[in-house]
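Worked example (supplementary).
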Amino acid sequence: MRVHNFSAGPAVLPEEVLKEAQEELLSYQGIGLSVLEMSHRSAEFKEIMEDARNRTLKLMGLGDDYTTLFLQGGASLQFYMIPLNFCPEDKVVNMIDTGAWSSKAIKEIKLLNKKLHIAASSEDKNFTYIPKEWKLSENPAYLHITTNNTIRGTEWKTDPDIPDNIPLIADMSSNFLSKPLDFSKYDLIYGGAQKNIGPAGATFVIIKKSLLEKQNPGMSTMMDYNTHIKKDSAFNTPPCFAIYIIGKVLKWIEDNGGLEGMKKRNEEKADYIYNILDESDFYQGTVVPEDRSMMNIPFRLPTEELEKKFIAEAADNGMLTLKGHRSVGGCRASLYNSLPMQAAQDLAEFMQKFEKKNK
Amino acid sequence: MRVHNFSAGPAVLPEEVLKEAQEELLSYQGIGLSVLEMSHRSAEFKEIMEDARNRTLKLMGLGDDYTTLFLQGGASLQFYMIPLNFCPEDKVVNMIDTGAWSSKAIKEIKLLNKKLHIAASSEDKNFTYIPKEWKLSENPAYLHITTNNTIRGTEWKTDPDIPDNIPLIADMSSNFLSKPLDFSKYDLIYGGAQKNIGPAGATFVIIKKSLLEKQNPGMSTMMDYNTHIKKDSAFNTPPCFAIYIIGKVLKWIEDNGGLEGMKKRNEEKADYIYNILDESDFYQGTVVPEDRSMMNIPFRLPTEELEKKFIAEAADNGMLTLKGHRSVGGCRASLYNSLPMQAAQDLAEFMQKFEKKNK
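After joint prediction of all chains, the assembly is encoded as:
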């Protein structure tokens, strides 16, 4: 029996993908060895890698002015690499702070002694909304946003409009490929794969090649995006198995209607839960309605005691990982691409029953 | 049918480990979700992580003055992080250059503008031996060696004797846990897991905690070993599935006699091949006998044409990845821990038959 997995990441994967991986685990396509043991220089793995890289761009509707990398170290390493590469001494990193993850990215800019400008922040209201206005500094190196805040449950609904000559960089860890977007507005998009497109262990970086013209000189090899671009994302041994699973998830996204299909599916799942938050005075959403995330839905119950009881009873009913992030408390349901519709339906039903019993 | 996989890495894994992973792929220990989808903050994953970290130290005979980290980015990222953390401005990195991998590590020290001293090098004889003497600089930050050269097939048979107050750091990517060693002589040991202890995607770092006293201030978060130590190797999302497989391989090593068992097994496998190189004038080893690696055995045939034929016919007989590294050509058999005895026997037999037919 499989449970419903509402984890914020690493998160649920399509059962079909896991079944395929299981069948092939001792012998990939009958060649007599596992992807777990396969040379990253083999013809088979090169095909797996190119397939995953190409499917990513195709789903995003991007051409060959962009390239896909699957690196390691998560968004956390990108927080360091991006300013290191793309903020020269005379320029200023512009950040929009929407909580936790942007705050961590901001910390690294300070540690690197780069000039920093907070173009907007929603800290005044405890990061419960997405800023609608911002003010860029003089001489901006780039503007950085976090398109979905996993912890707070806020999500950008439009792409920020900024002058074309200022690079736009986005951490899309928790809503990547969950809906159609004009990805061509962005110069660099990155995130951990372990939420919407695969298991832990790979970091997607989609980069517009022209951004490299703005790169600082003298980068160390592994810190230099060019190193990875020139070697087709295999300068050093890549996280092969994670990339193999990502390829399967990307194919699953295609087979399920692509990004339009994901949006429809994700909206429908989120509606099950948000409808309850709106109709009930037992459950309280924590985010202003217009900025609510389709991916992560935080909510509170009347007391912390009831929250504990809710999380425990849900687990007893096969609905796992509904606890909110330790920094904010409460409950949170994450409804990434791969979460089945049935999981959202079952959670909604459970929430209604729990309310009746405990009101 | 499983083939014999002589890949230099990612490399063969024990079939038992793969079978266990296959059984659990949709539901780890019956909990209803896969390790591929498991929160890194879950009780189950924390146990997997602690188990792998503890088994590593136990196999090495190290106490709690050391700690194990499973990071990302491979040895290549360590080439950068180590001098960044442990070489202050007034000190000098001391390196022993045994080819390819040490050379790459040396390149990063230069890119960081750190002072560098080559304490010894075997470049004079094309890296076909391990230097037996070295000369440290004034004010050494540390001495760095590569204990096994995957490409050249050389291996350190003794630990270098240096004064206690000078940290000894080793890249053990390709012979880690292949034999007993006095690991307590080393202050930092690192490498990619994908050769002897697991799949691609995790980097083992065994660090003596006292080394942290010598750390440079102001490190960026992800570059700072302390970040990872303080958070039990899970500051950011770790490569969960790779660590899970590593845990199983470590248990397999224990079940097969520990490091003594591995040494016996690896020597026996290597002997099959080295005996042929010694007895034949058709096959030529490329390394001085006293420094021959138990892990990677490069050899040449009389002509490049015969080498191509050998590699192709071996593949037809289910013996894969016997091509030498592109930088040196020829043939190479890698015989890591998990390679079954039968594979070495079959290769030896095939080599003899091939010689008879083609001499």
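Two points are worth noting when inspecting this output. Chain B is about 35% helix and 15% strand. Chain B touches chain A through 66 residues (CB under 8 Å).
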